[in-house]
Amino acid sequence: MDIALRGIALFGFIYLLTRVIGRRELSSLQPFDLILLIVLGDTIQQGLTQDDYSITGALIAVGTIASLQVLTSWGAFRFPRMRRVLEGHPIVLVEDGKVIEKNLRRERLTIDDLAEQARTNELASIADVQWAIFEPSGTISFIPKQ
């Protein structure tokens, strides 16, 4: 039971941590970020199972975290208000070719980051964009002007 309670606490901490880190950082993993995730996973495992190296302990830990993930996914699907809290909502970054600076600052993005993503989507400049929307997944959707 102790492992399940630690699993619940660590799941909540990791979920909160990913929300605080932000979409931008999670959508563009650099090599250091990958190393950090591996170290984080190992650290969590040590705190989760402590000195219990049994198969039963591992099954309880993994089962608890998997169950919590399914539960939060179901809750986000079933309850729209919960979805906004758990997953976030889309944020408009560009409207009719004009950058919304306040939203860029809020998401810790620069105009250069935005322009780079626009070029990646075959848009020559921000002025060619009707809408740019920062999705909850961390990607930016561009709708070009007609």
What is the gist of this entry?
The protein is α+β, with helices and mostly antiparallel strands.
Strand neighbour order, sheet with most strands: 2-1-3-4
Number of E-state strands: 4
Intertermini distance: 59 Å
Tertiary shape: elongated
Percent of residues in helices: 55-70%
Report strand %: 5-15%
Tally of distinct domains:
2
Low-confidence stretches: none
- The secondary structure category is alpha+beta
H/I helix tally = 7
Along the chain, the helix and strand elements come as HHHHHEEHHEE
Gyration radius (Cα, Å) is: 19 Å
**Major sheet description:** 4 strands, antiparallel
Nearest-integer average pLDDT: 82
Q: Could you explain how this protein is built, in words?
A:
The radius of gyration is 19 Å and the shape is elongated. The protein folds into two domains: 2-87, no CATH class; 91-144, bsu07140 like domains (CRO Repressor). It is built from seven helices and four strands. Helix 1 runs antiparallel to helix 3 and helix 4 packs across helix 5 (80-87). The chain has 146 residues and is an alpha+beta fold. The chain has a four-stranded antiparallel beta sheet.
